[in-house]
Amino acid sequence: MNPEPTVRNRLPLTVALATALLLTSCGGGSDDAGGGSASGSDDVLRVATEGTYAPFSFHDPGSNELTGYDVEVAKAVGAKLGKKVEFSETQFDSIFAGLESDRYDVIANQVTITPERQAKYLFSAPYTVSTGVVVTRADDDSVHSLADVKGKRSAQSTTSSFAEVATQAGAQVEPVEGFTQAITLLKQKRVDVTINDNLALLEYQKTTGDKDVKIAAKIDPPSEQALAFRKNEADLQTQVDGALQALRADGTLARISEKYFGEDVSGE
Asked: What is the second-level CATH architecture of the domain 130-223?
């Protein structure tokens, strides 16, 4: 923070000049909010992810190492660009604020491309194509389509695209920090549904064996997920798109996808 005016005015001129030069060299000022370099460093790619959203971004139970489909895709992109990848883990509802404040360069967390987001951010080429689903308790037969969530309570991260889907369908959104908490509230009957990615629900059931929740309805059409950047990062977006194209061509995206899902969900 800048010092108070009464204090600043007492600074000797040489100290004030030195301070100004230091701030300039460190990229201080308004550049932190919107401008600045294409990344935190030319040889570092700063990536934001949740770290709690299996199988996309989570900690391996054995090693506690951050891993997942999105994490491996981000690492592969960094390798193609010759950049070291540094991850910042944050809740999804604060992830875009961190991007806007230049705390990282890109979000890798199954960010669905929507017109509203495209108005505010740049996106890479998609690296996942998936289907949204309405999840209910296994004994609930009241939901057969998205229209049936009208008037129901839906547990959602408030800034997620699925929260928007729930709201537009007439559901009352109950804010949660992520998918795991949403499932917990659903099983406790504190909410009626949650809307999320079918891949996330299938992974949850595969790893936990939980049969108390089910996919009650699918949402058409399928959605596309991509890496997200600030609007002033067109150069970085172009570089990343080139890396993703190379990873698709050499089979890396398909290999990573098959590792986590047993099939290629990376699209074309």
From this structure: 3-Layer(aba) Sandwich (3.40)
Residue range 32-128+225-261, CATH number: 3.40.190.10
Helix (H) or strand (E) holding 96: helix 95-100
pLDDT digits (tens, 9 = 90+) for 88-145: 999 999 999 999 999 999 999 999 999 999 999 999 999 999 999 999 999 999 999 9
* Closest-CA residue to 133 (of 207, 198, 64): 198
Q: What is the pTM of this model?
A: 0.75
CA angle 215, 219, 222 (to 5 degrees): 115
DSSP 49-60: E-S-BTTTBEE-
Residue 47 zone, left/alpha/beta (φ > 0; ψ -120 to 50; rest): beta
Q: Rounded distance, CA 263 to CA 47, Å?
A: 25
| C-alpha torsion 50→102→257→154, nearest 10 | 40
